Request: fold
Amino acid sequence: MSHTDKFSTSRKHQRSLKNSVSLSGMGLFTGMKSEIKLRPAPEGTGIVFQRMDLPNKPTLPALAEYVQETPRCTILGTDNFKVQTVEHILSALKAHDIDNLIIEIEGPEIPSCDGSALPFVELIEKAGIVSQSKTKKIHHLETPIFWSKGDVHLVALPSEEFRISYTLNYPNSELLKSQFFTVHVDEETYKEEIASARTFSLYEEVVPLIEKGNIKGGRLDNAVIIKGDSVLNPEGVRYENEMVRHKILDLIGDLALVGQSFIAHVIAIRSGHFSNTSFAKELVNSFKMETHVNV
Reply:
């Protein structure tokens, strides 16, 4: 099958926010206070981070090619600066189909808020969404695209909707074991089913990281901590399967780094930030091949 058979495309109008909105908080990993401001941007801008606290206020596109590290979060950067923990805000923007936006940030890390994407959804709703005059291309897969390494697998299948299906597997955790969830991603279902799911960690994994100073801002009000067969957070979980829902939240954010709109059913098994962003790069390469062939 030729590459021209792999895709079909459609178009819809680009979108941005109506108004600027801001939010402040503490970074989960750095423990540093930071403030972000979401600022509307013209057609063709894309999603761009701007470090307002650095000389010359440098900018960084939210694209997979700028992924530097994935140490329990996704870090974008260049040789000179970086922006950490971008996945939650990008997840909310992707679910709301926002194409053009400047994310001004004072500090090295996006605020963790409550460990979910709900505060960013509420920020988007406060700002409002505007349809712009220019259109964008939407890629529709005709054949599968996949990425595998060991027992981690991701595949994008042809679909009439953007859907994520995720299988989580922690065989050594009495409480987690396996969880599965599937969801059609749009603004409504994202807010109802995904946005409020918080980041989580096993107690025995997170304690050494805190002791080493790798997680300076971790608290029970911005992460779910699991020890044995119990959740340490006094309020418990927001969903019985909150953990797999958060994995979907992360995956949507990492797939936003493709930087182009696409329709597919993405199936993930045990994926994390490294595999998610590697898969995003695989999608980017496939779309580039499509563009090259169709020129």
Notes: The two ends are 18 Å apart (CA to CA). The chain has six helices and 19 strands. Residues 146 and 155 are 4 Å apart (CA to CA). The longest strand covers residues 129-141.
